[in-house]
Amino acid sequence: MKDISLGQFYPARSPMHRLDPRTKILMTVVYIVMAIGFTSSFVSFGVLALIVLLGVLFSRIPIGKVLKSVRAIIFLVVFSFIFTLFFYSAKENDTLLVHWWKINIYLEGIYTATKLMLRLFLLVMGPTLLTLTTTPVDLTDGLESLLKPLKLIKFPVHELTIIMSIALRFIPSLSEETEKIINAQKARGADFDSGNIFKKAKALLPVLIPLFVSAFRRADELADAMDSRCYRGAKGRTKMKVLKLRFADFVAFFLLLAFFFVILLLKYNWFGIAFIEAFI
């Protein structure tokens, strides 16, 4: 759990770190929309991977740091791949590769399962760059600025963003606390590795109880700290750092939109280009 990158900030002097948090949030939203709704071919997945690679290069973050974020979902990725492969709904012209008992494996099923696996990988790696290059404070300020129109309908924008920021901030802390509790339980003779999945789940009960106690204690300490500093929500609150969009923000955002246009071109082939039809 110590390898989970979500919620961690990697300090560096890079163009990605200097971007306005609102720009990075909007870019992340556009990226997620691309990954979920408009990637249907291996070429379009390659475009998404290129976006992630460019983000890693411009943020000067070690690629291994970003890849660690995938470890948290590796079980989900493998399970989704196997489930899709075995329960693929075949069409009339699909190519059957393996037939054993009631199990049929089709070539198109392998393609579909592989695309799902790539989609999950890229969906995790993209937003991880947001948290690695943006501090929780900047992330809160950016979200609050983007959601400011909701204040017209009396929506508690500031309270919502501060909750999200605190939740992201405590993901690494709770992961570290979980590892400490597991090591302490192992030193007392606890066994978390043997037995079936139900025994392993039951063995985690001595970990979950102290973890919940620690989480509530941290919440109480944070509430006392905020109260002692006279925190009263958004009312009368000013900003020490005023967000300002710069030329680099517009360049980065429109560059991402250009990649979005390429993915749309690959998906719909609006201009009827012949070679694109081979990749759809």
Structure description:
The protein is mainly α and 280 residues long. The chain is 66% helix and 3% strand. The chain is built from twelve helices and two strands. The chain has a two-stranded antiparallel ribbon with strand order 1-2. The radius of gyration is 23 Å and the shape is flat.
Summed up, what is this model?
This protein has 280 residues and is mostly helical.
What is the molecular shape? flat
Distance between the termini: 38 Å
Assign a percent range to the helix content: 55-70%
Structural class: mainly alpha
Total helical elements: 12
Q: List SSEs in N-to-C order.
A: HHHHHEEHHHHHHH
Low-confidence stretches: none
Number of domains: 2
Helix and strand topology:
Blueprint: H1 15-18, H2 21-38, H3 42-59, H4 63-67, H5 74-86, E1 96-100, E2 103-106, H6 107-133, H7 136-146, H8 157-187, H9 197-203, H10 205-228, H11 247-268, H12 274-277
Antiparallel strand pairs: 1-2
Output the keywords.
single chain; 280 residues; mainly alpha; 2 domains; two-stranded antiparallel ribbon; 3% strand; flat
